[in-house]
Fold this protein.
Amino acid sequence: MSRTASALTPALAAALVLASAPARAAWDLNLPPPVTPLAAQILDLHNLILWICVVIFIGVFGVMFYSTYAHRKSRGYRAAQFSHNTRLEILWSVIPAVILVVMAVPSTVTLIEMEDTTRSDLSVKITGYQWFWEYEYMDSGYSFYSRLSTPREQIENRAAKGEHYLLEVDNELVLPVGKKVRFVLTANDVIHAWWVPKLGIKKDAIPGYVSEMWAVIEKEGVYRGQCAELCGKDHGFMPIVVRAVSAAEFEAWLGERAASAAGAAETVTETVTIHPGAAVSDVDSTVTVGG
Amino acid sequence: MASIDTTVSHDNHGDHAQPYGIMRWLTTTNHKDIGTMYLVFALLMLLVGGLMALLIRAELFEPGLQVLDPARFNQMTTLHALVMIFGAVMPGFVGFANWQVPLMIGAPDMALPRLNNFSFWILPFAFTLLLGSLLTADGGPASGWTLYAPLSVQGGMGVDMTIFAIHMMGVSSILGAINIIVTIFNLRAPGMTLMKMPLFVWTWLITAFLLIAVMPVLAGAVTMLLTDRHFGTAFFDPGGGGDPVMFQHIFWFFGHPEVYIMILPAFGIISQIIPTFARKPLFGYDSMVFATAAIAFLSFAVWAHHMFTVGMPLAGELYFMYATMLIAVPTGVKIFNWVATMWRGAMTFETPMLFAVSVVFLFTIGGLSGLMLAIVPADFQYHDTYFVVAHFHYVLFSGAVMAMMGGAYYWLPKWTGHRYNETLGKWHFWLTAVFFNITFFPQHFLGLAGMPRRIPDYALQFTEFNMVSTIGAFGLGIAQLLFVYIVVRCIIGGERADARVWEGAEGLEWTLPSPPPAHTFTTPPKIA
């Protein structure tokens, strides 16, 4: 009884919300618009495979539904008694195999490119913690923490939710456009995964491991993502925000930040003591091994 | 195919010596009673796991935290999966095997009846332990059913209870599997050669081998977890020279064959139902057997496709991509064979057939999204999102669970001697199929749009499809109460079913009266 009642309440609420949906227009059906060449390639690959699957599906089930319509006892259809057709059986083993090869070729090409992290312009080390991220520009050594900035009141429904609810942070990761950025990932406690859909990259950040991936962001803008590997209680509350700016703007920003961080060495020490990242520095030396 | 001798001559012979009431069920060694207990247990667990799913969906109805705090939410997603996999799907199929394997091969009972009793009675204790973890101070396991280390090292006593429960379930599964293999190899009626066995028996034979191969692997993984947690080992702790990724390799070496453990018996059930209602023999019997064996064999060689994002070497990623794609070929053969069985049959669409046809249709959606997931570059976008959640519910709910429901309608008249209410059965089918799709189809879009799985709260752009999904889930849940009602009504009474039950039914079980007496095939039937 109570289940029926509780099912009706959401249904009514949904009807109200769905009626006002155009305000947010979030009925997205596909991967988000890509902003890196890799993400664009993945989108093309995804669309190619999706459409091959759709065509196969319509073909096979076109036959099946025609059969369920035409070959009915109620239409007086008498059952045939065949149970083998060797030629047909070979055909429908070979054709799928050929289609698979067609899918495998572009997948292999894209994958090889994705795994090539050489010749990067700058490296950013990403460290996952329960439940926030640390970013370090490896060339300058400047690092900072990045945490969820959505107020508690919004999560607990005591205040209206903002536009970027749960996808906003105190310190954004700033990156230059047009540069090959190599990301080096690790974690301090449990496994996390760093994922920004529009960049087309996701990889686990694993304690004791150093993994790599890369991106060339082609368009200035703010790109949002989330931790994608269950990492405990607040797994849903450690977002990622990347701000892509021009190379000049990036250099200016990083110079200023690195200088002020060096100037306030005390502050940095303090931060380090609060979040000891011992395991992270231990694995630094193995960075070159990856890939 | 077969004719029976004098199977029912001493009908109720053994019954008089049997204890009654609760002692009958505690001490029974009869495959039919044990089969019934497995099936009732599975149905109960389906409802428990379903209730957890509804709590999850209620929390996800809109952004913000309303129903569950994040810690409880993680416990619910973890236990929902464990209860459904180890409590509903696996025992459900063992129930079907207990009832059907002896009837289909002309055996008097399972080969090891006391072991059979023991392997069932482990389960209620295992699940008391598992669900009891929710009552501990730190709550139940919250690291997902995959129990990835190091996260699973962090939890409280609930995790230890889960580990022991998994050990017990593993023992139960292995004993059940041994029993099925021994029965099939030793108790077939004369003339029932392996290549004459009904496909359901074949799929279970192969599944039983998979169980024996991989359940010890899972037991090993969780035992290492236990010693890491309490006895100072560091199998999965990099600080002590261990490796968190090794846990995933071991887990998925069990986990991928496990996927086929949960689907091959479903393929078997479908392969019984479709020929019956198409009134036409199964197309490509031999290739069905070989495809099942090929799928089982390949299932040992593709495990790492569950973990493409851990940062494997390129060669590893390419190998696991190609090997995974290869599984599409034998799976495709099965789908084509079912369609070819229907082709030019004389079909009717009673409830079992409706379920069987929809399993072929909906499972294929899950199969094709599985093929998409095999494509590594694309998988980087899909991995750990709702796209994956949608994928495996298409495979496991509209594959395994709906196949079991179809199987229940198919054999209930045989087991109970009563016909179920066909109108209500059809209602149950349509409600289930429609609400299932309302629940899970939008989750593909959520995943593509960027919603990770296993999160208790989400960004605003995911609201609409989550609401649709939650409405579907409550519809799906309520529809299953109708299923319980239909089954109970059918057990209590209803129109008498004759021996054949279905016009197009073929096989030894249909030569027995409905319901069959406690002891059947005490002298082996003659196979034509």
